[in-house]
Amino acid sequence: MAKKSHQEGVQLQENVQLMSQFQVLAARLLELTSVELEDRVRAELHENPALDEDLHRQSEQELPSEGEGGDDVRANYRSEDDVPDYEWQRSGRHYAQIEEIPFSEATSFFEMLQEQLDERHLTPHQRRVATYLLGSLDDDGLLRKDLLTIYDELQFHMDIVSSVEELEQLLKMIQSFDPAGVGATNLQECLLLQLERKERTQGSSELLTLEKRIVKHHYKDFTNKQWARIEQRVEATPEMFQQAIAEICRLNPRPGASMGESIGRSGGQIVPDFIVDTTDDEEITIALNNRNVPELHLNNEFVQLLEEEEEREADDEQPQEATSFLKQKVMAAQTFVGALKLRHQTMLKTMGVIVAKQRPFFLEGDFALLKPMTRVDVAKELGMDVSTISRVCNGKYAQTRFGIFALKDFFTDAYTADEKKDLTVVKMMQELKKLIDTEDKTKPYTDDELSELLKQQGLNMARRTIAKYREQLGIPVARLRSELL
To answer: Is residue 65 in a domain?
Structure first.
């Protein structure tokens, strides 16, 4: 009886360990693009003899619910007729239309930050909160949400009770991550974080002190390129002042962009992760682009060999090394196939919500039709953690009838006009551009004047928001616009 209890305890421990490995593997596979997934699957196929590639059959079976993958695979996949399929049913016309354009094959920004987070000694609660903070960063690596808003989101959407003080501490930790400047709450803080990192790694100097003084105390003049005004207020030689300005201009205002999803940064090719097809009768279909990913199943001979070894072990009543090795490989194969199936399910569910919420765009291809939508919205809809949605979206692309787009392009911030009508950032920027395009170029509008004009249209936009959108549109300040005449 005691022996049986011990065996049950060992089995329970193995199941818990297997599920932990499964969850970690599933999260990592979710971050991979379709190209990276192909390499990962082929590597596993090469390393694990318990796996086989199905070169002929493409079956379609029910996908597992989140958390599956710990059942005994030998009971489920005894023959090649029971091969688990983790690919979406697809037609040849989808693949005939796949386009390839240049892209960067770098590790995703979120993945790089997550790896640094994993190295920190945190409680499970702290790790969840910190992961949420990572998922709240903009694509440029800055945190533009205030911490009180994130505190509310954690409590009401994620059922996590935190505090603003805890958020501040964890954000400070994130600001110590690479690249320098990540986690800053605005551009000024982003530049200061980079200068402080530079001071810690290279040591203090008169030049660096001047750079910090300019960014900290004369930032507004710096952004408006009021060089003469700054030079009058700082104690420095003309040569040192010019050098300081040049060094500040070399800092990265978008630390996330260096690891982001921009197109045309290398000689690689974009391979879309999703195929979103829209028919003339407005039917939208979604498929995963797994055309080159090997389809896996358990090696039947390997499973049979394990069963024979287990029978021999039972007869000898002595554990066999061979049995342990075979069982380990079968469990690893089971975990990998289950994680692939869960990746398939999560990817399609997430893209399904994106398409449903942004249906007008996928029918017309007009970014002005995008509705307000955040990763938190999608996570809440699916009952998933926002970090899961970030893993799905970061570095991923969708091919549509209008071209290939990064998934991040479908997310927008929301503003509400006096008429209680939701407006996306894209629409706000369009209205801002209309005003600037029709202004008197001899007396262009200042940001304050633009804010007031938009307010008269029922669009409340602060001056600092005007400045941010104007910079994103590549439009200079009023003084420089008049000088361009």
So the answer is: no
Chain-centre distance for alpha carbon 97 = 26
Query: What 3 state SS string does 168-216 have?
Result: HHHHHHHCCCCCCCCCCCCHHHHHHHHHHHHHHHHCCCHHHHHHHHHHH
For residue 416, the SS3 value is strand
Residues pairing with 415 in the sheet: 423
Total-model pTM: 0.49
Q: What percent of the chain has pLDDT over 70?
A: 74
Q: Is residue 301 domain-shared with residue 245, that is, in the same domain?
A: no
In a domain, 240, yes or no: yes
The tens digit of pLDDT for each residue in 72-123 reads 333 333 333 333 333 333 333 333 333 333 333 444 677 788 888 988 899 9
**What is the spatial distance between Cα 296 and Cα 46, in angstroms, rounded to a whole number?**
12
Contact assessment for residue 94 and residue 275, using Cβ atoms and an 8 Å cutoff: yes
CA distance 155 to 216: 34
Question: Cα(466)–Cα(460) distance, rounded to whole angstroms?
Answer: 10
* CA dist., res. 423 & res. 371, Å (int): 7
Residues 364 and 371: beta-carbon distance below 8 Å: no
Cis ω on the peptide bond leading into residue 179 (within 30° of 0)? yes
Strand-pairing partners, residue 52, are 297
Is the distance from CB of 29 to CB of 343 less than 8 angstroms? yes
Same-domain pairing of 176 and 299: no
- For residue 462, give the CATH number of its domain: 1.10.10.60
Cβ neighbours for 118, distance < 8 A, ≥ 6 positions apart: none
Residue ending a domain, among 412, 438, 463, is 412
**Where in the sequence is the domain holding 3, given as residue range(s)?**
1-54+80-89+271-412
Same domain for 115 and 84: no
Same domain, 295 and 407: yes
Give the pLDDT confidence of 303-321 residue by residue, as tens digits. Answer: 777 777 766 666 665 556 6
289 and 238 in a common domain = no
Omega of the bond prior to 102 within 30 degrees of 0, cis? no
Q: Work out whether the CA dihedral 420, 421, 426, 428 comes out positive or negative.
A: negative
Q: Which amino acid is at 225?
A: K
